[in-house]
Task: structure prediction
Amino acid sequence: MLHVAEPVLGAEEKVALAEVVDSNWITMGPRVEAFERAFADMHGAKDAVAVCSCTAGLHLLLDALGIGPGDEVLVPSLTFVATVNAVLYVGATPVFVDLESLDRPLMSLQDAAARRTPRTRAIILMHYGGYLAPVAPWREFAHRHGLTVMEDSAHAVGVAGVGSYGDGAAFSFYGNKNMTTAEGGMVIARDDEVLARVRQLRGHGMTSGTFQRLNARTPTYDVTMLGFNYRMDELRAAIGRAQLEHLPDWNERRRTLSNAYRDLLAQYCPQVAMPFAKGDRSSHHIAAVILPPRCDREAVIDGLRNAGIQTTIHYPPVHELSYYRERFPETKLPVSEAFGQRELTLPLHPRMTEEHMHHVVRTLATLV
Ligand SMILES: *Cc1c(COP(=O)(O)O)cnc(C)c1O
Result:
């Protein structure tokens, strides 16, 4: 089976894990710190905080930025549910915003402006597929209305400029992302104090961690805020460092493959569209395509599966999921809904070959 996503794991990860086991220190310590430094360097940040998931990172950022009950947060509906769940975790209210277009499935600034109210406090941008949202207009909009800007950067690890839009960004190292620690995430923030708060919230709100206390003069701690256990461990950090080294090459390979998809689709099934354009800056996290109107997507999925090709959907819009539909029944987002109905995600990962891509596109051409 040709999978939609696959991690690249091998000898380096095995060695990294063995080193941690031999060191006999497996919880948050020097390897987590080293991973944070390397990640910050790659993303042009001063510092970074490793956490147990991107979801945890989004939660902590919202908390550290003081978003809470009574605040409205503008969010895309075309995202993974975690983006919106995080808003509910802090007691704030998500306000769903529609997309620019089927061809540019990023949150629409025009629709965001229309849905802004005096209670709007923050925006969470999501770089769909690793394609960055336009930075200048969002900054200008946020500045004009005094809004906090966060980035759900789960798709955009390693892309130049990601994490620099506003107040903070959270990244994911889940198994299907461009680099992985199995489960894991990272937070960067513009303000040192916000990041320090994220760091403290990650470990129960304690003023020091176990590893620091090992070498400290006073082996005690205080708790000065209501925190969580969202720590990363040394095993994951060791894998993360090994993965990070390869990330630029993997993202470059993804770019090559993604461009090849564009060319092959244009040649063999021009009725299938690929959002965004060839030169757009991206981590090429997924190969999302838009099927023709009235195409039977289930039949296409079955046909591809019979040819050994896995596909998925990114995403069923969050406002159409039962829990959210019941909580926010009035939400109508025509572009997100059409995108959710017509989108199909084809396999894309660094170990794919040109032959694989031909097989996918030629099979797809027989089905649409
Ligand atoms: C994967 C993903 C998340 C969640 O990441 P975890 O690390 O699994 O918590 C959040 N948002 C988006 C857009 C994602 O793709």
About this structure: The longest strand covers residues 120-126. The first helix runs from residue 11 to 23. The pocket of pyridoxal-5'-phosphate is lined by residues 53-55, 79-80, 82-83, 126, 152, 154-155, 172, 174, 185 (CB under 6 Å). The radius of gyration is 21 Å.
